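Please go through the protein record below and see whether the fold suits the sequence. Record follows.
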Amino acid sequence: MVKITAVKTHTVDFYRTNLVFVTVHADNGLVGTGEGTLEGRERAVQGAVADISDSLIGRDPTRIAHTMYELVRDGYWRGGPVVMTALSAIEVALWDLSARALNVPIHRMIGGQTRDRVRAYANGWFSGARTPEDYADAAVRTVATGFRGLKWDPFENFDLVMSTAELDRALAQLDAVRSAVGKDVELFVEGHGRFDVATATRVAREIEQFDPVWFEEPCPPDNLDALAEVRRTSPVPIAAGERWFGRQGAVPAISRHLVDFIQPDVTHAGGIFELAFISTMASTEYIGFAPHNPSGPISTAASLQLGAALPNFRYLEIMATDVPWRPDISSERLTLTPEGDVLIPDAIGHGIELDFDAMAEHPFVPHPLRLFEEAVYDIRPRDEISFFNLEGAR
């Protein structure tokens, strides 16, 4: 029997956060990797992984479902962002290691391939923009690279409520972007859980004119009754789920049909098998599956493996640009097609190799969350780069 010999964490500064990677080592020489990036709580995740790792040493890394069940059962303190992120990173690493042992991609182990590409929408494309004209210019540049979907939060740093003048500023952004890119580009309006019910309802009515794919996380994630009221009156589809952890968080919203798109994050909601379960439950209610994914290369790679296998996978979130050293720290090489799709790599495991020497050149730097500060819009550095291959699309 193959046995786990070590579990380690690694961090790398990524401007607005630090990526956290977890490596699971086996006595046959194989190593699986996962990602547990949790903005502003990276050191807490590292501590949680260290606590959990004692229970992993000596286990068979291929017994993934059994191992994860016992880790949750024996942990006693269940759920929450820190513990679930740590468990998610470990779970993805176990899938990666197991797939490498069989010399197959992960999607071969979770049902096989449904598609070879997924529709992507860009986040982070607006960094540095301030005026509606800035947003329009950035949108045009991003669409020119191949993206056919744009997401952003136009609501500044508002907390629960906003004035008419503040709402008008947000609507001016939306109007400028829609006018600049036309009707063929999909727009995704992010709310970051900012609003109370009355304000979220008002916003939903006002943004209908711009035909968004969805209004994302219109109110805080901890009250499903509030979300139910917003969805009941909203003329636009509602998306949520990045801050629901595992099936216990997602299934009540699915069963009550509180969202039109469910957005669990593979790095927070329990990993690959848990997201596959949530996707299946969403499919019974004909709810679209669109994972949250603003993080690093392994989060993206794991989400793409799910995109390959899950029939109701609708959209992949991905950053349009990133820090200049993103291509240096891993073997990630993504192709964005002219139609706005990201091709799914067919390498073994999740397909990502990490370069720890390159990561060491960018050590941990504290980055507090800035959701209610003006600086939240500086989501990328001034020397940001595109990390996509725009050639060779099939």
